[in-house]
């Protein structure tokens, strides 16, 4: 199993940057595809980005492509999300998740989830 914990959220002004980190406790971390999701109050959880177990395949939601960058360090059991040019609509709780599915982009395709970290972008 994999246990995940996010950190790095906070309050920033529009146009600013934040870097989120996710620490994994499982010894099988490198075997999983990793993803980031976000959820605003009253809205459904939405896919943000994913990265393959090898780090060689990356995929982003259209809403963040060109602004966000996902990366992982299997030696340190971490996955990160660098967020640049933040917009108020990026405000949400951000979750990291682990999946053993092929090219997962849906919530149900991810088996393990962190507790989330709040990101607030002011205008």
- What is the tally of beta strands? 11
Number of helices: 0
Could you tell me how far the N terminus lies from the C terminus, measured between alpha carbons in angstroms?
Answer: 40 Å
Biggest beta sheet summary? 7 strands, mixed
Task: Quickly give the structural class.
Answer: mainly beta
Task: List low-confidence stretches.
Answer: none
Fraction of residues in H or I helices:
under 10%
Q: What fraction of residues sit in β-strands?
A: over 45%
**Mean pLDDT over the full residue set:** 94
Whole-number radius of gyration? Answer: 13 Å
Tell me, briefly, the overall form.
Answer: globular
Q: Secondary-structure element sequence?
A: EEEEEEEEEEE
Written overview of the protein:
This protein has no helices and eleven strands. The chain is mostly beta strands and 123 residues long. Strands 2, 4, 5, 6, 9, 10 and 11 form a seven-stranded mixed β-sheet that branches. A hairpin with a 4-residue loop joins strand 7 and strand 8 (78-83). The protein is globular, with a radius of gyration of 13 Å.
Any descriptors?
seven-stranded mixed beta sheet, mainly beta, 11 strands, 123 residues
């Amino acid at each position: 199993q994999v246990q995940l914990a996010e950190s790095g959220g906070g309050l920033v002004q529009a146009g600013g940057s934040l870097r989120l980190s996710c620490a994994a406790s499982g010894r099988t971390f490198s075997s999983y595809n990793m993803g980031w999701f976000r959820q605003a109050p009253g809205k459904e959880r939405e896919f943000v980005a994913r990265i393959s177990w090898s780090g060689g395949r990356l995929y982003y939601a259209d809403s963040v492509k060109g602004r966000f960058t996902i990366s992982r360090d299997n030696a340190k059991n971490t996955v990160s999300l660098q967020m640049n040019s933040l917009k108020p609509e990026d405000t949400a709780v951000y979750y990291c998740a682990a999946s053993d599915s092929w090219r997962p982009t849906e919530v149900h395709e991810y088996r393990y989830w962190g507790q989330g970290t709040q990101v607030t972008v002011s205008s």
